[in-house]
Design a protein that fits this description.
218 residues; mainly beta; 4-stranded antiparallel sheet; 1 helix
Amino acid sequence: MNPEAKLIKSIRDRYERAGKIARPVKQPNETMKVDVGLALIHISEMNHELSALSLNAWLRMSWKDEFLKWDPAEFDGIKDIRIPIHYIWQPDIVLYNKANVNGYGGMKITEHTMAVVSYGGEVLWIPPVLIVSLCSGNQGETTSCALKFGSWTYDGFLLDVNFFDGKELIDTTDYIPDHRYEIMKTSAVKNTKYYPCCKEPYPDLVFKLTFKTRENDN
């Protein structure tokens, strides 16, 4: 067995003992920090009748996993590996404002992807996703859609979200233009909500996409 295979087996064995449901932190009161970003690849459709936007994107996420640390000297100097995401813990980040078009809505991972793991426990996961989201902005010539992401079950004391690489926008570097739509601008903001019943914060990230529907394609 080569060093990389030994390392991956060691990680899998470690997870089988510890389990991959609990947050991989040292102390139970420690906050898990997850960075989330969105890179737009293509706008598939803006359904004005249903106020629903369908798009293809890359969801960018990174976090630190205390169960994934190793000493490179023990594994032939290996400092990072690629590992199937289902081998390890992953944050329950969801799209809150999902729409339903033709029986589907929300956020769907479209390909089986690997996570890149560094010896210090840093995890980088960038799956391609199909997103179908509700839009509450003006549904005329110019449309604004806000995509709201956050943890489905954890409060902000247990899991906090921040922007991937500090980018408070939707990355359009790899965007494939569509003759039907013209992107005007993108932005993003972090919100923290408190409920009357509880002291825990509930953070979310809202990515806003503003685009123009070309008149001759309405």
